[in-house]
User: Which sequence fits this backbone?
């Protein structure tokens, strides 16, 4: 994978909590315009990897670049230097650590959804998406409060309406977000992430809790959304049919380390992956 | 040098009283994740109970102390059952607000029953406890001297209880993981009540030691000490009993030395909070604190 | 209800409230009768409404459990007092320590002094906000409580004797010449808070309250927004404190104790955390109860020659505290929950009452609803 061409380049990322290495020396590249997947058994460290990329956790070691620019970087220092159990601990020691907050990463153009849906439960469907537009609005607290930036508010509302309509959620606009059925809440969370105008969309187990029919619809939905908005998608998933069907490239991790990578047909037949958790891969 | 030692002794003494009350805060927080805002007022009510027993009912002090401890324990357990238990599944803010409500109620109740005027504490009836003791060049009262010793013994007993007994193990389990403990068959209500029994009992003891030298009780007497004692619990790392002891000593000592200084004495109450703010900024989990990461 | 109907109801409602305020202002005596109580309740209740709304902004809408209100009120009250006590009276007020030289002739017009009061409080909030707001909610509560106590003690400490009059406190604090001054200030302030809450930033605050991890992931900078909410809340708390000083004519470091913060918190809880109209309604009700309706409980009453038990000084506050506990335990959401007052809910309420009485009169009250539609029955 050509590092220069990839939208997201993850290099030697290790996350160590105390004595436990949750993510071990993970390196990945996400190609632009495609769908890349990260799969692995439960507890393999997939969400932790996501959290390292999105600034929720500060990785113990490693580098993440986005659109060619370094976005997250760290190396073990102080107490962690002695306890470090991972590899490449000196690789970035000479470089200044970069530790952005999640909101600044979102501003750069990476949006994410969560494994356990995190909608704002006191707000309506419309407001959930509208609030995600707050970040990019050209205003400050005074212009917003005294309605001087009325045009910005109108723009945000119009864009929200348009987005909801494209996502087939407009009819629920005034309903409380948590009153929606589970599948629609998922779609709402994705719509909310889209409202931040991302270039890269990170989906954490979007098909969790869905039946095969819903998973099928979700698969189509993800591909359509990607094409419509010109996004790159990086997803964590368990549902093998979803992953195999729509991914262009797959990374497999187990116990924090990468055990395989490649196109779906290759990964499906990789014995290590099968041993890790696939069992028997069902062919149609 | 003598003043220094005098201050040390006084500091340790008041610090031990703070420690006794801080233990109540830290235990309740460890198990319920609740700042029991009413704890300081329970301490205040214990003071009034003593006045009732000795001044109104003329019961001799050695029996009064026992009655006061029992009455305070009953008060603490009743408060838990009425005001905290129903809110166990509610969001955290609700139960804290309930504690604030109880505190408000107790203060108003005391004002109503006993009037806002300070009532005198029957220290003179406790004869020998106020007698003078001289060590070298330092002179102090017996109670000031006994307090730290008594407190350390109690803390040791408590730590043994927590480490070596079944109920102690249950308490540790509940403070580590509330839900799982319930699933494992730990009788949560009994454990929680027991926590309040210990906390209130120690507060009652602390109140006797506290009010003897102060000679009077008034309805808001528990407010500021209560706050300081929670700070002491935070210093030592909330949830840790030896920590509460250390925190109590720390606050008692710093307060006494500041009070003794010529220029800063009016800030003796402030020093506690200034220390708190510094500690929370530098080490947000307290000196021996806890680290809990939220699962994303 | 249709939009125009709702708008008309709102206009009528607000006009009615304004009319009440004007009538009380014009006709109610200042003391001595029941109507004087109404005057007190309206003025004091309005001041508390402002403070409650400011606390709700921080605690209810943003989810930051701050207990520092009393400290900001103290700061605001003192700032206002220092800048407005008439020069002629100053020697008398500062009789013990004398006024600081640079201060002795500075007098600001009341509106400017109010603004200064808010700004001082906001300044303190800005200073302590950054580190304090990172704390977990329990510790935030204690830290802010601690700060409030520090403010209280420091403001009365001896180095500031010539500015704040130390432990003696300040008196002869002037107020608006017009009775309506307090209402106008409070209404303007509350209006600004409402505008803020309904703006993009208000939504960001609510997002932080509901789920701050998601809020951060959607681009909302937590530190920045939390500080903003805290500072703005303190600004209005400072103005509230100044209004209080104005109303009472005097202020000292023991005016705004921790108990006052608890009192405001309880008002907010009763009204509903996250509802501005709730806080306003609750303030008026609570103050009315505490200052007026429950007052008879404080007087010893006699039936014939027997003294009615329980009724003596202080009983009012006990009953009040018990009512608060009942609300906290059984009506956790408060009067309004997290919704604002709206006419649809009022209509629903009246319709429910109407249905209740209808069932009462047709004897249907305890009859179960039939499973099969009866002939000519409820089928729509």
Assistant:
């Amino acid at each position: 994978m050509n590092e220069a061409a990839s939208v997201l380049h993850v290099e030697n990322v290790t996350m160590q909590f105390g004595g436990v290495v949750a993510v071990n020396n993970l390196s990945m590249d996400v190609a632009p315009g495609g769908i890349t997947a990260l799969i692995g058994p439960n507890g393999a460290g997939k969400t932790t990897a996501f959290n390292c990329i999105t600034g929720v956790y500060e990785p113990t070691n490693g580098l993440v670049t986005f659109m060619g620019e370094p976005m997250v970087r760290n190396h073990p220092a102080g107490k962690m230097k002695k306890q470090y159990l991972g590899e490449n601990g000196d690789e970035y020691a000479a470089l200044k650590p970069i530790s952005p907050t999640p909101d600044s990463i979102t501003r750069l153009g990476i949006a994410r959804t969560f494994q356990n849906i995190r909608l704002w439960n006191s707000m309506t469907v419309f407001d959930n998406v509208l609030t995600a537009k707050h970040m990019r609005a050209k205003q400050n607290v005074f212009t917003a409060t005294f309605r001087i930036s009325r045009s910005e508010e109108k723009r945000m509302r119009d864009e929200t309406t348009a987005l909801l309509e494209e996502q087939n959620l407009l009819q629920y606009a005034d309903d409380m977000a948590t009153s929606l059925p589970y599948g629609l809440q998922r779609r709402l969370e994705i719509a909310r992430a889209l409202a931040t105008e991302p270039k890269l969309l990170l989906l954490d187990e979007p098909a969790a809790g869905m039946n095969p029919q819903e998973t099928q619809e979700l698969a189509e939905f993800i591909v359509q959304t990607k094409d419509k908005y010109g996004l790159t998608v990086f997803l964590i998933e368990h549902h093998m049919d979803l992953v195999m069907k729509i991914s262009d490239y797959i990374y497999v991790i187990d116990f924090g380390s990468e055990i395989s990578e490649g196109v779906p047909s290759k990964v499906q037949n990789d014995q290590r992956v099968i041993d890790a958790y696939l069992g028997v891969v069902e062919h149609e | 040098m003598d003043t220094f030692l005098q201050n040390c002794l006084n500091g340790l003494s008041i610090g031990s009283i703070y420690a006794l009350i801080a233990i109540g805060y830290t235990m309740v927080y460890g198990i319920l994740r609740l700042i029991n805002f009413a704890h300081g007022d329970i301490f205040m009510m214990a003071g009034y109970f003593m006045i009732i027993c000795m001044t109104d009912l003329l019961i001799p002090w050695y029996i009064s102390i026992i009655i006061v401890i029992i009455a305070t324990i009953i008060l603490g357990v009743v408060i838990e059952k009425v005001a905290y238990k129903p809110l166990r599944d509610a969001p955290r803010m609700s139960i804290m607000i309930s504690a604030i409500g109880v505190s408000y109620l107790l203060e108003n109740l005391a004002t109503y029953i006993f009037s806002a005027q300070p009532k005198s504490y029957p220290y003179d009836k406790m004869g020998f406890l106020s007698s003078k003791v001289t060590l070298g060049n330092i002179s102090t009262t017996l109670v000031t001297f006994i307090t730290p010793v008594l407190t350390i013994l109690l803390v040791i007993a408590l730590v043994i209880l927590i480490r070596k007994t079944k109920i102690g193990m249950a308490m540790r389990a509940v403070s580590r993981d509330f839900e799982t403990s319930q699933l494992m068959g730990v009788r949560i209500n009994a454990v929680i009540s027991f926590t309040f029994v210990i906390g209130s009992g120690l507060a009652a003891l602390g109140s006797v030691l506290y009010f003897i030298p102060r000679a009077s009780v008034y309805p808001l007497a528990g407010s500021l000490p209560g706050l300081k004692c929670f700070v002491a619990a935070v210093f030592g790392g909330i949830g840790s009993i030896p920590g509460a002891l250390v925190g109590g000593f720390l606050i008692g000592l710093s307060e006494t030395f500041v009070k003794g200084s010529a220029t800063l004495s009016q800030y003796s109450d402030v020093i506690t909070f200034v220390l708190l703010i510094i500690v929370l900024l530098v080490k947000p989990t307290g000196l021996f604190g806890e680290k809990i990461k939220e699962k994303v | 209800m249709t939009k125009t109907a709702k708008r008309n109801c709102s206009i009528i409602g607000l006009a009615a409230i304004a009319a009440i305020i004007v009538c009380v202002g014009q006709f109610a005596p200042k003391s001595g009768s029941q109507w004087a109580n109404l005057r007190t309740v309206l003025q004091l209740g309005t001041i508390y409404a402002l403070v409650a709304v400011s606390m709700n902004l921080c605690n209810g809408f943003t989810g930051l459990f701050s207990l520092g209100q009393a400290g900001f009120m103290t700061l605001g009250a003192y700032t206002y007092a220092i800048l407005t006590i008439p020069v002629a009276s100053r020697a008398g007020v500062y009789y013990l320590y004398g006024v600081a030289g640079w201060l002795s002739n500075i007098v600001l017009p009341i509106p400017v002094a109010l603004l200064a009061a808010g700004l001082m409080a906001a300044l303190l909030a800005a200073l302590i906000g950054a580190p304090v707001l990172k704390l977990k909610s329990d510790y935030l509560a204690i830290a802010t409580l601690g700060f409030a106590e520090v403010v209280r003690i420091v403001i009365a400490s001896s180095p500031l004797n010539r500015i704040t009059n130390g432990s003696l406190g300040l008196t002869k604090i002037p107020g608006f010449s017009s009775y309506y001054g307090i209402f106008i200030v409070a209404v303007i302030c509350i209006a600004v808070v409402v505008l803020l809450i309904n703006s993009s930033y208000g939504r960001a605050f609510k997002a932080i309250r509901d789920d701050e991890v998601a809020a951060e992931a959607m681009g909302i900078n937590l530190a920045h927004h939390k500080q903003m909410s805290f500072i703005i809340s303190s600004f209005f708390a400072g103005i509230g404190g100044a209004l209080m000083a104005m109303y009472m004519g005097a202020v000292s470091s023991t005016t705004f104790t921790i108990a006052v913060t608890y009192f405001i918190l309880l008002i907010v809880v009763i009204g509903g955390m996250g509802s501005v109209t709730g806080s306003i309604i609750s303030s008026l009700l609570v103050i009315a109860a505490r200052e007026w309706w429950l007052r008879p409980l404080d007087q010893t009453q006699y039936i014939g020659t027997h003294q009615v038990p329980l009724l003596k000084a202080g009983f009012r506050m006990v009953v009040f505290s018990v009512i608060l506990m009942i609300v906290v335990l059984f009506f956790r959401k408060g009067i309004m929950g997290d919704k604002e007052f709206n006419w649809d809910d009022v209509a629903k309420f009246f319709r429910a009452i109407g249905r209740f009485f209808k069932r009462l009169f047709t004897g249907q009250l305890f009859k179960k609803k039939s499973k099969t539609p009866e002939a000519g029955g409820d089928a729509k």
In short: Residues 54 and 60 of chain B are 6 Å apart (CA to CA). The first helix of chain B runs from residue 2 to 32. Chain B touches chain C through 49 residues (CB under 8 Å). The first strand of chain B starts at residue 119 and ends at 120.
